[in-house]
Known about the structure:
The protein contains no helices and 24 strands. It has about 325 residues and is mostly beta strands.
Amino acid sequence: MTKIRRPLITAGFALAAAGIAHAHATFESDRAPAETTFKAVLQVPHGCDGKATTEVRMKLPEGFVFAKPQPKPGWELEIIEGAYQKTYDNHGTKVSSGPVEIRWKGGNLPDEHYDTFVVRGKLSGFEKETVLAFPTTQLCGTDGFVVWDQVPADGEDPHSLENPAPTITVTPATSGGAHAGLGGPVEQATGPVKLGDLEISGGAVKAMLPGAEVGGGGFVVRNGGSADDRLLAVESPAAGRVELHDMIMENDVMKMRKIEGGIAIPAGETVELTSGGLHLMFMEVEKPFAEGDAVPVTLTFEKAGKVDYVLPVGAAAGHEHK
């Protein structure tokens, strides 16, 4: 269930915290270039003085815009919207308001367990290196909470803070373009990657034409185990979203369709994602993929879990080197 509220949000979180934390709430990755889509993965390592976490509230700073939170099974998702201080361009549309706080509510994360809370947004409007703080509050039932909202002053050691806010360091968009730092040249692309009984290899993405917002690519998955698995999802900071697609023949016409429910990876078999069959579609790409670059992706499998992989960008369709 998702609720959306649109009041202007008053600034500030309570400065007190119930109990002293021994491990901070931080982001899995805390550095990214401006004008890119960033997936903020908040790591929650403990509860409040031994009590289970039942709600997580994350305030979104100015410049982290067009945010979309990831729902969590067993938790209610609340999106609070408000006005931005500036106006931002969203694929040609001027936007001056959007999500400014995300709340995951009504769950139960025991103190002895660890979990992550994810929200994706665009880092926009930065011309110099900037540290963005995301003040976050953990609620534990009706009488316990931990507030992560402290930001170091100039020259202050952040490690000296008792309850530092999770932060992202935004670096300027350089001559490498909007996706600088999101993969680099082909030489930085990974070789085969093992994930349990699975081996991922043969990754490739086609270069895109100027102005294009949709790109295609794929890879090969070999299941060397005795149990079936399934590719559930693919994510990439280089695209707004990544969809799983297939090509089918319909009335003597080859058509593309989106796959719901993932792609089966049967035990002992190899599944190839490539043009003309099963493949990946990168949607809402802000900067077209250029030959010689590489595109990072995160693959999620039903049983094997998650793994990071890099797809090198080859020549555009119809322009392969002879």
